[in-house]
Amino acid sequence: MKCPFCQHEETQVLDTRVSEEGDAIRRRRRCGKCDKRFTTYERIELVMPYVVKKNGSRTEYTAAKLRGSLELALRKRPVAAPAVDAAIASIEEKLLTSGKREVETGYIGELVMQELQRLDNVAYIRFASVYKNFEDLAEFQNAIAEVGKPARK
């Protein structure tokens, strides 16, 4: 760690503590050259993968877009806000733990459909109709029949 005062590269750690919030490590350091003291913090940096759109363009992951899609599908449905937050957290966790630097929009869409099916069948059908680009009534009927099937064990 370079000293912020003299740029010397050798510093000594005097004290290490976990921050009050528990999300960082605080270290007190002393420069070996100028003998000045300073504090550094280590924090976890979570990097979401880039999203590859259908046209091949790449964009940063945006949590607001994910929330907007879920809220649109769940509009006027009896689903509590904490359940929506948990669904978003679940999707984001799956994106982070996938280990991929880039994910396709289709992968995110499938994760959203899984969460919506768990939360509310009507919202699932709403989202699926747009996501899968339903063209006729038969596709709606097939999706409704799929939702109505008992879960496999």
UniProtKB/TrEMBL annotation:
A zinc finger (unnamed) spans 3-34. The keyword Transcription applies. GO terms for molecular function: ATP binding; DNA binding; zinc ion binding. Signal peptide: none annotated. Pfam families: ATP-cone (PF03477), Zn_ribbon_NrdR (PF22811). Keywords: ATP-binding, DNA-binding, Metal-binding, Nucleotide-binding, Repressor, Transcription, Transcription regulation, Zinc, Zinc-finger. Residues 49-139 form the ATP-cone domain. Binds 1 zinc ion. GO terms for biological process: negative regulation of DNA-templated transcription. Its cofactor is Zn(2+). HAMAP family: NrdR. Belongs to the NrdR family. Negatively regulates transcription of bacterial ribonucleotide reductase nrd genes and operons by binding to NrdR-boxes. This is Transcriptional repressor NrdR. It comes from Duganella alba. The lineage of its organism: Bacteria, Pseudomonadati, Pseudomonadota, Betaproteobacteria, Burkholderiales.
